[in-house]
Amino acid sequence: MSGTLNKVMLIGHLGDEVKLHYFDGGNCVGRFPLATNETYTNKQTNERITNTEWHNIVVRNKGAEICEKYLSKGDMIYVEGRIKTRKWTDEKGMDRYSTEIQCSDFTFLSTKKEKQGQQHDDTSSHQNHEDSLPEKDDLPF
Predict the structure, then answer these.
(1) How far is CA 137 from CA 8, 19, 70, 96, 134, in A?
(2) What value does the mean pLDDT of the chain take?
(3) What CATH number does residue 122 fall under?
(4) How far, in Å, CA of 75 to CA of 63, rounded?
(5) Which of 66, 103, 111, 137 is the most exposed place for a label (fewest CB within 10 A)?
């Protein structure tokens, strides 16, 4: 195979609320931390060990607005996307790097309303294609 692949699939819990940032022209970006856990038993001590890995998720435009409206800290979500390392300069002029997951698709596995006792049989799925996005009021939850 001569090609390359940059694809990430994660299922985890939001570590904080979705933070939106709007730009001139109406575009926006949403950011949130996602926690994934690995649990195993230490064979020497028979102790259960849980390791948490934190991922910085970035979602854009309508997808970001949908996430901000329907997700809250602790909710479970499936995220699909690609890894991207971004270079930026801090206030001291030092180069910094951030590794992020650029989200292209997501599926809600739990939502704010489910936490409020309004259980639903379906999960909500989203593909980050601008012309295929439902309006917020058209979502099934």
Answers:
(1) 29, 21, 11, 40, 8
(2) 85
(3) 2.40.50.140
(4) 16
(5) 137
